[in-house]
């Protein structure tokens, strides 16, 4: 996936480049009034920059050169110059403030859009995209977009006004000399085109290396316990060093290129322009007197003209980086691997919670089936257990049941209606899921149980905890239900986290209960505490349970034994033991103390 994205970005055509820019600029439509006001402020600053050299020109030509010290006139000129400089400082402040305000609001909107989009994507997308790469797009790439609006957009508008203003002023001073200077413009345009074309490759590569860097860091931190347990620190450090070195190399190439085409190239053009200007006025001086103030004004205008060009070229780097970053962000926004779509029949409500699989086959990659013709029925209030060795397809059944993945072959029915016809909100509200690895959010125990649902009262939270026997250990904590939960609930044992996860499910009172090896990580003592709670949870609810410990599903109404994506045995606990097949062997192994 990463390699594909990298290749696509490095071969982005001019048309795609323009499309990304157009889409990026569409976010400014909400800020037209403020942008217009800021444009006028830039215009005022440009006018001041055009007028200021004229004031100095007048002082040089009319007062200093002829030694005409008319103090009143000179005082007016000085006051006007200082007043314009002060006005420029004030206007410049508001100009920068408004541009930054617009930039922050635009990036805030983009981040909301991409974050919202991520929550609509299907599990297939997250299966093939590293978490660190996604984080990089939401944070680093949007930050690059912000820098573009703050620096590039403001500089582009200001430089455009400056270029026009400076050349108008130069033509007003001397048309012939302005035309001579205009002859340098093709050289300037050539440098800009070369810089844009070459620098874009460096910046695209740089953003990709940064994304890989973030992905590597994220993966290392997430799996730190495994890294340290298996002495993988050196290997990961070497991998990080390689990626970091690649990032450094790309950055250095970009720096060298900037050092060649930014300052030195512009300075060389400025030197040529000064030679042209001085040569022109030198020739003029052979014919008659030359106004020193006019020479100063002309050199000053061309200096500011080239300064505007330099600023544009310097910001081109940020522009290239922002376009690359925006392309990466928009790729997520345009991602079609979304959560399976529902038909949303208006009156579709789960009532009895009868579940039926009819000849369901499924492949994660679209080619290799992990489920093959799965058929079974869980009547209302019944418990159906799924057992089998790793990779047999148990979790895949749960994934389809929860609508995490789309299936195209076979049918899954709830109350004799296709699962695709229920609104996703109805499915989520009526189904409770408990996973093997329970995730806990930063906060406190109470909020982790009700997941910040304000409609669930404190009493309901405590009743749910008591129901699954979680209240026993919660009451031993200093702040009981207000006890702080650090990231991922690291301060709790796996059994305690699972008990809280059970309480989180019970408090919503679901009609369908899905248990994905929910007791696999719980010690024997904790397991004995929740067995009673589990029986009460299953009472009156249709339950689909993946079981690692066969002792926990002895009383299931139906046990399905899976192997290589197929149901190879089915029946009750006693019936399967009498068959003497796979289930019997698994049960014998567990009872003899061996790990399955």
Automatic annotation (TrEMBL):
Which GO molecular-function terms appear in the entry?
A: ABC-type oligopeptide transporter activity; ATP binding; ATP hydrolysis activity
GO cellular component entries: plasma membrane
UniProt feature coiled coil, ranges = none
Checking PANTHER family in the record gives: ATP-BINDING CASSETTE SUB-FAMILY B MEMBER 10, MITOCHONDRIAL, ATP-DEPENDENT PERMEASE MDL1, MITOCHONDRIAL
* Domain ABC transporter: residue ranges: 355-589
**Protein name stated in the entry:** ABC transporter ATP-binding protein/permease
Q: Which species expresses this protein natively?
A: Listeria fleischmannii 1991
Q: Pfam families under this entry? A: ABC_membrane, ABC_tran
- The reply on keyword Protein biosynthesis is no
InterPro entries noted in UniProt: AAA+_ATPase, ABC1_TM_dom, ABC1_TM_sf, ABC_transporter-like_ATP-bd, ABC_transporter-like_CS, P-loop_NTPase, Type_1_exporter
Membrane-crossing segments per the record: 32-56, 76-99, 149-171, 177-195, 259-280, 286-306
Looking at the record, the residues that make up the ABC transmembrane type-1 domain are: 37-321
Q: How does it sit in the membrane?
A: Multi-pass membrane protein
Recorded hits in PROSITE patterns, A to Z, give: ABC_TM1F (PS50929), ABC_TRANSPORTER_1 (PS00211), ABC_TRANSPORTER_2 (PS50893)
Where in or outside the cell it occurs: the entry states:
Cell membrane
Q: Which UniProt keywords apply?
A: ATP-binding, Membrane, Nucleotide-binding, Transmembrane, Transmembrane helix, Transport
């Amino acid at each position: 996936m990463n390699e594909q994205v990298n290749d696509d970005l490095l071969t982005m055509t001019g048309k795609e480049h323009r499309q990304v820019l157009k889409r990026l600029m569409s976010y400014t439509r909400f800020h037209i009034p403020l942008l217009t006001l800021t444009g006028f402020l830039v215009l005022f600053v440009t006018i001041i920059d055009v007028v200021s050299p004229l004031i100095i020109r007048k002082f040089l030509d009319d007062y200093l050169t002829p030694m005409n010290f008319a103090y009143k006139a000179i005082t007016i000129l000085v006051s006007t110059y200082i007043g314009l400089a002060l006005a420029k400082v004030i206007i410049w402040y508001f100009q920068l403030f408004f541009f930054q305000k617009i930039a922050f609001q635009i990036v805030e909107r983009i981040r909301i859009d991409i974050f919202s989009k991520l929550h609509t994507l299907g599990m297939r997308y997250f299966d093939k995209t590293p978490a660190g790469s996604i984080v990089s797009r939401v944070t680093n790439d949007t930050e690059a977009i912000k820098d573009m609006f703050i620096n590039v957009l403001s500089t582009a508008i200001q430089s455009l006004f400056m270029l026009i203003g400076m050349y108008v002023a130069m033509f007003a001073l001397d048309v012939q000399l302005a035309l001579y200077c205009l002859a340098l413009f093709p050289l300037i345009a050539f440098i800009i085109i070369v810089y844009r074309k070459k620098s874009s490759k460096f910046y695209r590569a740089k953003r990709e290396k940064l994304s890989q860097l973030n992905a590597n860091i994220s993966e290392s931190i997430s799996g730190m316990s495994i890294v340290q347990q298996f002495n993988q620190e050196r290997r990961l450090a070497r991998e990080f060093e390689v990626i970091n070195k690649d990032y450094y190399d790309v950055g250095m190439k970009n720096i060298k290129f900037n050092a060649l085409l930014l300052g030195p190239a512009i300075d060389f053009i400025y030197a040529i322009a000064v030679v042209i200007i001085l040569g022109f006025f030198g020739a003029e001086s052979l014919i008659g007197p030359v106004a020193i103030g006019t020479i100063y004004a002309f050199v000053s205008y061309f200096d500011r003209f080239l300064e505007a060009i330099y600023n544009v070229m310097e910001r081109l780097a940020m522009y290239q980086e922002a376009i690359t970053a925006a392309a990466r962000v928009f790729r997520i926004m345009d991602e079609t691997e979304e959560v399976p779509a529902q038909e949303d029949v208006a009156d579709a409500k789960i009532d009895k919670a009868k579940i039926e699989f009819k000849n369901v086959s499924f492949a994660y990659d679209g080619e290799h089936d992990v489920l093959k013709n799965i058929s079974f029925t869980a009547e209302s209030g019944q418990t159906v257990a799924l057992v089998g060795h790793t990779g047999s397809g148990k979790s895949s059944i749960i994934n389809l049941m929860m609508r995490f993945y789309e299936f195209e072959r076979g049918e899954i029915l709830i109350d004799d209606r296709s699962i695709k016809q229920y609104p996703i909100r109805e499915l989520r509200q009526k189904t409770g899921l408990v996973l093997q690895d329970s995730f806990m959010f930063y906060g406190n125990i109470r909020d982790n149980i009700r997941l910040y649902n304000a409609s669930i009262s404190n009493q309901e939270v405590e009743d749910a905890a008591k129901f699954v026997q979680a209240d026993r250990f919660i009451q031993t904590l200093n702040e009981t239900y207000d006890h702080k939960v650090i990231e991922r609930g690291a301060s709790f044992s796996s059994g305690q986290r699972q008990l809280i996860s059970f309480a989180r499910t019970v408090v919503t009172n679901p009609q369908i209960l899905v248990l994905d090896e929910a007791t696999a990580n719980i010690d024997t003592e904790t397991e004995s505490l929740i067995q009673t709670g589990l029986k009460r949870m299953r009472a009156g609810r249709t339950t689909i349970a993946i079981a690692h410990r066969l002792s926990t599903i002895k009383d299931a109404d139906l046990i399905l034994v899976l192997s290589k994506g197929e149901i190879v045995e089915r029946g009750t606990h006693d019936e399967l033991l009498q068959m003497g097949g796979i289930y019997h062997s698994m049960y014998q192994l567990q009872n003899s103390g061996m790990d399955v």
